[in-house]
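Friendly challenge for the regulars: who can give me the structure tokens for this chain first? No prize, just bragging rights.
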Amino acid sequence: QVQLVESGGGLVQPGGSLTLSCTASGSISGIVAMGWYRQVPGQQRELVASVTNGGSTHYVDSVKGRFTISKDNGWNLVYLQMNSLEPEDTAVYYCYRQSGWPTARLYWGHGTQVTVSS
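First reply, four minutes later:
Bragging rights claimed.
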């Protein structure tokens, strides 16, 4: 059973920085990727950043150059460093883990609120 817990959200002024953390527990077998989604009420969930089991990182165009995803070697901790934050970054941020074995499965945390406002 996989459990994901996000932390680090809060209120920050435009241009500021914030770092989100995801603490994962449970089996790490079959991991394909981990990363972060974000969602604004009334809008679709958006993939923000991910890191694959091959070490590749991916970012949505709107955050390239501003956000950085990282993790520990054991897939227990995933971080999202967010710099130069803008009001458009305001959302609930969710950590996810994608597994391919024994079955294809997505695991989610409960989210952490990020609010960018002056």
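The longest strand covers residues 31-39. The chain has a mean pLDDT of 96. Your move, everyone else.
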